[in-house]
């Protein structure tokens, strides 16, 4: 089973100025097999990206919200705690 899925942001805490770039990284503490990563924002059905890294260019006011990554190894699925992205 997968465990310890966590999310980090650059800039830290997901606080970013309009027009800047935000990079989110998803890591897994434990789990075997080929891992697949997907990115989501609360309230949106759209898939934001795949892979362990999500880069959002030219952040705007409507990019604020709670982001999380979902990791699957084919047998189990785990999600990170949501990160609140704030536009300064």
Automatic annotation (TrEMBL):
Residue intervals of the Ig-like domain: 1-86
InterPro entries: Ig-like_dom (IPR007110), Ig-like_dom_sf (IPR036179), Ig-like_fold (IPR013783), Ig_sub (IPR003599), Ig_sub2 (IPR003598)
Entry-linked SMART domains: IG (SM00409), IGc2 (SM00408)
Regions that span the bilayer: none
Protein name: FCRL2 protein
């Amino acid at each position: 089973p997968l465990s310890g899925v966590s999310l980090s942001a650059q800039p830290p805490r997901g606080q970013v100025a309009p027009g800047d770039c935000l990079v989110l990284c998803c890591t897994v503490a434990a789990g075997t097999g080929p891992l697949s990563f997907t990115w989501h924002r609360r309230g949106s059905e759209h898939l934001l990206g795949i892979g362990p890294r999500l880069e959002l260019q030219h952040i705007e006011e409507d990019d604020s919200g709670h982001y999380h990554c979902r990791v699957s190894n084919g047998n189990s699925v785990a999600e990170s705690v949501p990160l609140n992205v704030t536009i300064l």
